């Protein structure tokens, strides 16, 4: 462990604002008040000390004060959820706990296709913005950064197609997403977070595609700001250390009482059941085959 490393209780993470999965871990660390620094994966320490240990380039990667590493946003959150001094973001009551876990998987898996679609199928609107962000991933020592950037972006565009976000499916992808956006906007016009006055695992799962892609990339950001202001405000709120809920003056910083699931959230769950559950069952059947 190098001598520079260990500022006590400060965690160093490697990620970026353009990264879907980094968005989940970052928001959790901010909201839970966990001191950390977010660095680009191009530092000398990352290249010389981190990669030889973790063996693969993956965002996010968190380095603990003892020199150990955790890769994967969910595992990073799980690590802190086990700490007794940290207030858990997973509700204890049964219905809200189930809802939290459903939104977690919905954010990380169910919204991957629209997140990729709105990023990579609107290249004219998004490419300059993405080029500036992704350029921080490459260092001149690794060869021509511009050439590597082009290959990297073309690979992600192909990954978008592999996920089923193509010209033929674009209208269906957009219709489903925009319907969900309307329902989320209605909910966030009443509640600052999915389960009331404090963020839960549900919010941290959902923020991954909504921050990394859908609220920052130029085209989907414009769509969200024009048609779903309350959703956009939620994405801002999820990246502020304070509760940031001045629009809700009577709201306490707690989950909704009595394990209650409001009607606005039930409507969103119904939409998830309509779109995501059949796809999940089809994927399971395909894998089993």
Descriptive notes:
The chain is mainly α and 289 residues long. It folds into two domains: 11-81, Glutaredoxin, CATH 3.40.30.10; 94-288, no CATH class. It has twelve helices and four strands. Strands 2-1-3-4 form a four-stranded mixed β-sheet, with helices on both faces. α1 (20-31) runs parallel beside α3 (73-81) and α1 packs across α9. The model is unreliable at 1-8 (pLDDT under 50).
Features:
single chain; 289 residues; mainly alpha; Glutaredoxin; 2 domains; four-stranded mixed sheet; 12 helices; 4 strands; globular; disordered N terminus
Task: Work out the oligomeric state of the chains in this entry.
Answer: single chain
Helix content: 55-70%
Shape: globular
Q: Point out poorly predicted stretches.
A: 1-8
User: Distance between the terminal alpha carbons, to the nearest Å?
Assistant: 47 Å
- Counted by DSSP, the helix tally is 12
Overall pLDDT: 92
Estimated structural class = mainly alpha
| Main pleated sheet | 4 strands, mixed
Tally of individual domains:
2
Q: Largest beta sheet: what is the strand line-up?
A: 2-1-3-4
* Radius of gyration from the alpha-carbon trace, in angstroms: 19 Å
Please report the total strand number as a whole number. 4
Estimate what percentage of residues fall within beta strands. Answer: under 5%
């Amino acid at each position: 462990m190098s001598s520079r490393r260990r500022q006590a209780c400060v965690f160093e993470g490697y990620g970026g604002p353009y990264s879907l999965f980094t968005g989940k871990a970052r928001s959790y660390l901010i909201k839970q008040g966990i001191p950390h620094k977010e660095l680009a994966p191009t530092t000398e320490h990352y290249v010389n000390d981190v990669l030889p240990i973790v063996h693969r380039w993956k965002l996010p990667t968190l380095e603990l004060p003892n020199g150990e590493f955790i890769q994967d946003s969910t595992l990073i959150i799980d690590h802190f959820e086990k700490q007794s001094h940290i207030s858990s973001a997973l509700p204890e009551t049964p219905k809200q706990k189930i809802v939290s876990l459903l939104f977690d998987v919905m954010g990380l898996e169910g919204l991957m296709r629209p997140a990729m679609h709105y990023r990579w199928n609107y290249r004219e609107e998004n490419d300059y913005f993405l080029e500036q962000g992704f350029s921080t991933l490459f260092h001149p020592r690794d060869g021509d950064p511009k050439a590597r950037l082009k290959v990297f972006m073309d690979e992600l565009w192909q990954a978008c197609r592999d996920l089923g976000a193509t010209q033929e499916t674009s209208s269906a992808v957009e219709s489903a997403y925009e319907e969900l956006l309307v329902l989320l906007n209605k909910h966030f016009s009443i509640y600052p977070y999915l389960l009331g006055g404090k963020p839960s695992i549900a919010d941290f799962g959902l923020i991954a595609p909504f921050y990394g892609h859908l609220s920052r990339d130029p085209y989907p950001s414009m769509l969200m700001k024009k048609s779903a202001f309350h959703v956009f405000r939620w994405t801002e709120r999820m990246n502020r250390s304070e509760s940031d809920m001045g629009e809700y003056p009577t709201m306490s910083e707690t989950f909704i009482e009595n394990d209650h699931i409001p009607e606005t959230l039930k409507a969103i769950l119904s939409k998830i059941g309509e779109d995501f559950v059949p796809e999940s069952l089809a994927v399971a059947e395909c894998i089993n085959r």
